[in-house]
Design brief:
This protein is α/β, with parallel strands linked by helices and 449 residues long. Helix content is 28%, strand content 22%. The chain has a domain of 310 residues: Alpha-Beta Barrel (TIM Barrel). It binds (4S)-2,6-dioxohexahydropyrimidine-4-carboxylic acid (DOR). (4S)-2,6-dioxohexahydropyrimidine-4-carboxylic acid binds next to loops. The site of (4S)-2,6-dioxohexahydropyrimidine-4-carboxylic acid has 12 residues, from loops.
Length: 449
C-alpha cells in the first residue's frame, strides 16, 4: 500500500449519517483523520477545493458479476472495477456464478488472488452454495467471506439450489448472511410454456415479466423468508422487483437488529415494463423489470426502509449475446459506472434524498455485512469518498463507457448530476473523466467474532 501525503478536502457539503453540512476533511495514510467546519490549510500537503460539491462516502455495491475467472469475454475484475471507480463505487461484493463457480474454498482463494493482482476497487467475494457443498460452507472464514449466495431460482450460470433438505441444513447451520436470488422455477417453466404456445420460438422481450412473473418472485421469496424465520438464519433477499414481496419485510426495527433484509437494484428503480418497447433485451434481467406500480412501490420502500440496501447486480454480457432473440439472449446488463449518476438524478427529481441514498448505498451495506471501517465519513475510517456535482448534466455516450462489453442500458440518457472525483483508501483514483490510479485497492474485512 502506498503512503499518502496529507490531503485536505475543503468546503464540500459532507453527506453522512442523515445530515448534509459544509465542512473540511483531512486525510492521512489512507484514513480520515479529522472532520471539522474548518481545518487549517497548513496541516495539509494538498488541498482540494470542494466548494459547491457534495462529498459522499464511496458506494458499496453488494451485488456485482465481474465474470472472472472464465467469462472474460464479457468482463474482468480489472475492467469492471475501473468502471466502478468512475461510478463512485469504491467497494464491491462479487457473485459466485463464474467459471468455475466459486463453490470451494480453493476456488474462492484463487478469485481473491486475481483481485489482489488486478482489482482497482476494494473487493469481497461471496461464496456459492450448491446442493452438495455444506462442508465447504461450514469451513468458511467469516472475517473474509462477506456472505453465502444461493440461487433459489436459476439464472446465468446454472447454480440452482433446489434440494429442500439441503436448504434447511444450510439455513440451520451457517451464521453467515445468506443472500438469495428468489424466483420459483416451476412457475417460470409453466409461464414459458404458455408463452411458447402463443408466440412459438419468437417471444417478444416484453413477455419477460409475464414469464418471470410476480408470482414466481413471491412464491420463492416468501418460502425463503419462512425458512429463515423458522431456522433463525440471517437472510438477505436480493433484487426485489415487485410490490407484493415488500410485505415480507419490516421497517419497525433498526437494520443492525434485522435478521431478514432486502435489496433493490438500480434497474428496478429506473425502468418499468413500458421500456421493453424501446430497449428490448437490453433491460432483460432476472428478476424481470416489472410494472410501473411495482417500480413506484420499490421507490416507496427505498424511502420508508422496508428495503435496506441499493445495489446494481452489474451483470455484463456482450452486445452480440444480448442482440440474440429473447429466448437466447442472456439476462443482465452493466451498471456500475452509471448507477450513482442515475440515483443522483432521481434525487434532483425529488424521488429520494441524498441522505437516504447515502444510507442505502454506503452505510447500510457496511452495517449489513459488518464491513470494517468503511461506508461512513468518520474519523478513523478509510478515506473512500466520492465528490459529486449535483448541477452538472452528463450524457452517457458509448465512447466514455469503461465496461468491457462496451454498451449500457443508459446510452443516450442525460443525467442531471455528475461524479467529479473518487478517492479510494486516501488516494485520488478517478478524476477529470479518467481512472488515474488502479494500485490502491484493498480486500474488505468483516468485523465479526
Ligand atoms: O439478470 C441477471 N443476470 N440476474 C442474475 O441473477 C444473474 C445475472 C448474470 O450473472 O448474468
Amino acid at each position: 500500500m502506498k503512503t499518502s501525503s496529507k490531503l485536505l478536502l475543503q468546503n464540500g457539503i459532507i453527506v453522512n449519517e442523515g445530515k448534509a453540512r459544509q465542512g473540511d476533511i483531512l486525510i492521512e495514510n489512507n484514513r480520515i483523520v479529522k472532520i471539522a467546519s474548518a481545518i487549517p490549510v497548513n496541516r495539509a500537503d494538498e488541498v482540494y477545493n470542494a466548494a459547491g460539491k457534495h462529498i459522499l462516502p464511496g458506494c458499496i455495491d453488494d451485488q456485482v458479476h465481474f465474470r472472472e475467472p472464465g467469462l472474460t469475454h464479457k468482463a474482468s475484475i480489472a475492467s469492471e472495477s475501473r468502471a466502478a471507480l468512475a461510478g463512485g463505487i469504491t467497494s464491491f461484493l462479487e457473485m459466485p456464478n463464474t467459471q468455475p463457480q466459486t463453490t470451494t474454498v480453493e476456488l474462492w482463494e484463487a478469485k481473491n488472488q486475481i483481485a489482489a493482482a488486478t482489482s482497482a476497487a476494494n473487493y469481497g467475494f461471496m461464496f456459492g452454495g450448491t446442493n452438495d457443498n455444506l462442508d465447504e460452507i461450514l469451513a468458511l472464514d467469516s472475517k473474509r467471506v462477506p456472505a453465502l449466495k444461493l440461487f433459489l431460482g436459476s439464472s446465468t450460470g446454472n447454480m440452482l439450489v433446489d434440494n429442500p433438505d439441503v436448504l434447511r441444513k444450510i439455513f440451520s447451520s451457517t451464521k453467515l448472511v445468506i443472500a438469495v436470488h428468489c424466483e420459483d422455477e416451476l412457475t417460470i417453466k409453466e409461464n414459458l410454456a404458455a408463452a411458447k404456445a402463443t408466440y412459438g420460438e419468437v417471444i417478444p422481450p416484453d413477455q419477460h415479466p409475464i414469464i418471470r412473473s410476480e408470482t414466481a418472485c413471491y412464491l420463492s421469496s416468501s418460502k425463503a423468508v419462512a425458512l429463515a424465520k423458522e431456522t433463525g438464519a440471517r437472510l438477505h433477499v436480493f433484487h426485489l422487483s415487485t410490490a407484493k414481496e415488500l410485505k415480507l419485510f419490516s421497517n419497525k426495527i433498526p437494520l443492525a437488529d434485522k435478521k431478514i433484509t432486502a435489496e433493490v437494484c438500480v434497474h428496478h428503480l429506473n425502468f418499468s415494463d413500458k421500456d421493453y418497447a424501446s430497449k428490448g433485451n437490453r433491460i432483460k434481467w432476472n428478476p424481470a423489470v416489472k410494472t410501473e406500480a411495482d417500480q413506484n412501490a420499490l421507490w416507496e420502500a427505498f424511502n420508508n426502509d422496508l428495503i435496506d440496501v441499493l445495489a446494481t447486480d452489474h451483470a455484463p454480457h456482450t452486445m452480440e449475446e444480448k442482440e440474440q432473440p429473447y429466448l437466447q439472449a442472456p439476462s443482465g446488463g452493466p451498471l456500475v459506472q452509471h448507477a450513482l449518476p442515475a440515483m443522483l438524478t432521481a434525487v434532483n427529481q425529488g424521488k429520494t434524498t441524498l441522505e437516504k441514498l447515502v444510507e442505502k448505498a454506503a452505510h447500510n451495506p457496511a452495517i449489513l455485512f459488518d464491513i470494517k471501517d468503511r461506508g461512513f465519513i468518520r474519523e478513523g475510517y478509510y478515506a473512500d469518498l466520492v465528490v459529486v456535482d449535483m448541477q452538472q448534466p452528463t450524457t452517457v455516450s458509448t465512447n466514455d463507457l469503461l465496461y468491457k462489453c462496451g454498451w449500457s442500458p443508459f446510452e443516450g440518457t442525460t443525467f442531471s448530476a455528475a461524479i467529479e472525483r473518487t478517492l479510494l483508501n486516501g488516494h485520488w483514483v478517478y478524476c477529470d473523466g479518467e481512472v488515474i490510479d488502479v494500485s490502491v485497492a484493498m480486500p474488505l474485512e468483516f468485523d465479526r467474532n
